[in-house]
UniProtKB/TrEMBL annotation:
Job description of the protein: Member of a network of 50S ribosomal subunit biogenesis factors which assembles along the 30S-50S interface, preventing incorrect 23S rRNA structures from forming. Promotes peptidyl transferase center (PTC) maturation.
Source organism (scientific name): Neisseria bacilliformis ATCC BAA-1200
Compartments where located: Cytoplasm
GO cellular component, one term: cytoplasm
Keyword annotations: Cytoplasm, Ribosome biogenesis, RNA-binding, rRNA-binding
Name this protein carries in UniProt: Dual-action ribosomal maturation protein DarP
The keyword Methyltransferase is annotated on this UniProt entry: no
Record-linked Gene3D superfamilies: PSPTO4464-like domains (1.10.60.30)
InterPro entries, per database record: DarP, DarP_sf
NCBIfam families listed in its UniProt record: PRK05255.1-1
Amino acid sequence: MAHNHRAAFYPRAADIAAKMPPLPQPTAQRKMSETDNEEWVSKTQMKKRMNDLQDLGMELTRLSDDTLKKIGLPEDLYQAVRDYKKITANGALKRQNQYIGRLMRETDPAPIRDFLARLKGENHAHNAFLQRVEHMRERLIGNDEAFTAFAADHPEADLSVLRTLIRNARKEKELGKPPKHFRALYQALKAAMEAQRPSENHISDGLQHPAE
């Protein structure tokens, strides 16, 4: 009984250790850990920035040469992008990609991002306009009343030419002939509708147009 009483009175060392708070980390070790973490974050951010610049450089390779000239790129970057578009071998493409990435890290990306943002906005607006032209063509071929409304909205258009093109496009469709007048109608409508679009200061050329 005395032995049991003594065991209950004196807790085991393991129980005491379990209840003790952890010892504070040595100052030098704590500082080293914080420094390592900051370096890891810094390296991660740097890698992300490098990848972003690499992707931005690849966006340039999808532009026409005339559009590239409008950005005002440094000469070595401009030439590197042009050279990339001429390369076909995978290994050479990868090396040129990396070279463009290095040049991008030496270039201010802000003007490039601003130009591409405006270019994408203009492309979107232009493609939306071309879709409206296509929809109008379908309406005019399918409904005579649509022509009356179009004539009222576009008094400057050559309505006699449009009537002929619409009539011939309908015949082509009925007879299954090549869509010669169907395409000509698209171009005529595009010219008439574009004449009434607000004037825009285009920054691009060679836009990707939907099929006529």
